[in-house]
Amino acid sequence: MIYHLPELSYAYDALEPYIDARTMEIHYIKHHQAYIDNLNAALNKYPPLQNTSLAELLLNLDSVPEDIRSAVRNNGGGHANHSLFWRWMKPGGGGEPGGALGAEIARAFGSFAQCKQQMTEAAKSRFGSGWAWLVCNRAGKLEIISTANQDSPLMSGVEPLLGIDVWEHAYYLQYQNKRIDYITAWWNVVNWSTVDILYQVVR
Q1: Which 3 state secondary structure label does DSSP give 165?
Q2: Fold of 21-87
Q3: Domain assignments of the chain as residue spans, ordered by start
Q4: Does the pLDDT at position 1 exceed 80?
Q5: Which one, of 33, 71, 66, lies nearest residue 54 by Cα?
């Protein structure tokens, strides 16, 4: 399998004023493409691994040859995370989830507001680069977690339902060092339809 940059379903400027066009363009065609290029280069050394899904590679990193393990972890995680991240945003997004997802969030966290607060705090307090996540854990329960760098929840066998990228390249052109301003703005572009689709698969 040769990995490719997934197509965006919206223009670079479609998420403004919350995410600026220049950040979107650089993030997508430079950073995400670099993860893909580096992942493909690593897997080229071991062609049989190209027949293994990315989720399987990330879940079983110990079985990946040591000389490419870090490359698969960092770049495979980066590709997996970003492929979902673009889908988790849309023009005119935001608001609150409804249906079974909304009900489960209220059950798990007390309310959507509390879920949002916990995820915001996880994103804000992540030291250095990384992600904050809403996941479905191995017990089938919703949970908020945070990971460093490009580590994916898939590495722990849990399913990511929603994630926010808090690497500086995701926000620094527009928000400089004000990570919390970026996080606050980001909630206005969340695509709950995608989150609901992912939840329906794992529930």
Answers
A1: strand
A2: Helix Hairpins (1.10.287)
A3: 21-87, 99-202
A4: no
A5: 71
